[in-house]
Amino acid sequence: MGTSKLIELIAIAALGGLSSILANKGIAVFNDGLRPIVPEFLEKKIGKKELAATSFALSFGLVIGFGIPVSIGASILLVHSILLMTDIIGSWAPEGKKGMIISGVIGAVYGVGLVLGLQAVVDAFAMMPVNFIDSLSQVGAPVVISFSIFPAVAIASQHGFKKGSISFIATLLTLFIVKQFGTFNLGNGTKLTLSAEGMSLLVGMIFMIYYAVQVKSDGSNSNESLVSVFLERVNRIKKNWIWLSVMGGLVSAATSLLLIAGDPISLNLLSEGKMSEAALAAFARGIGFIPLVFSTAIVTGVYSPAGTTFVFVVGILLKGNPLLAFVVGALVMFIEVQLLTLMAKALDKFPGIREMGEHIRTAMNKVLEVALLIGGAMASESIAPGIGYFWVIGLLLLNRKAKKPVVDLAVGPIAAITLGILVNILNLIGLFTPVVAG
């Protein structure tokens, strides 16, 4: 094995191992939909089983149905195929030092295994009697778009239906306009595409902050004496700045070695040797991710292992120089964490902003409950047409009558996973034949 190959394997092992540990400790997860759920577990509102099942259902289908297939055919891995799986590994591993070790080891082995045997992973799942993995990816399908809705829900909760409706319409119009007109041709065949979800979320957040700052102080110093919801969450991220900085450095280093890419567009450009175009595409994507990553981080106290994804830009610009990329990537992640703190302090100067924190968390959970239930129903119906909706609705209503019910948040994902396992068992004993489209 050559020195360069050894360096690549060490880099990917470190990336997989550390990201799994961060997920296990509840410091950072890659899946935006999982981020608001982690604090629910840390505060013992949901159990380890619900967290693990939700993480699996949100991420696994995307790993097998999106991350790995996009990576096949190129010598570069789409980062989703690694960091979504390390979310799962960290969520499933037990708590404490034992869990950290297990997460780190399995995450590192997975990263190396992915580099060495990418196609074998896809072939292994194709051998299942009934392939429900592709269908499972639908569980998380409504989550990304539904995130844009939570500011309007939070506004309605805090300021009333009328203001919530105005915000909802503004968010909807932004989503429509950016989807229709958000692609710009930059020449040389390079296109800049704005994230419709990210931009609509940004508009919703602007409305939410605007209404919150209108709330006048009662003249007391209660704001100063109370511990801020936002600052408390951000301080949790700040406390882990070393972990996060090292993680950012590893992402940049792996990108500079052309091991990973942050999105399919830059991946394809990198595979064609178009470095400047790839950097531009990655930069544009980072701008679109700022509202989503920052808003979820401030509210939940959980960050992303790739931050706002600017660490990929660093890696591309410093191609072939992993050590320098590591240092600069770590610095970029550190700066992001500091900006979070400044933003939280600025927001905390207004009483309406402080009160907004709990409304946001409630709104996020409500939106996720609905999105995951719809996603679970879509996935279940795809796995077993004509039975899926029956299965999900039945489990949801029966669960509410159970002595120890599973939280509604986890019903959709658990229903899809259990149905997928069930139809495979029934197929093996000759009682279920998958419906083939066409």
TrEMBL record:
Alphabetically ordered keywords of this record: Membrane, Transmembrane, Transmembrane helix
Pfam families, A to Z: YhfT
Superkingdom of source: Bacteria
Listed InterPro entries: Uncharacterised_YhfT
Stretches that traverse the bilayer: 6-30, 51-68, 105-127, 139-157, 164-182, 194-213, 241-262, 282-303, 310-335, 370-398, 410-432
Record has Transmembrane as a keyword: yes
Signal peptide: none
The protein's name: YhfT family protein
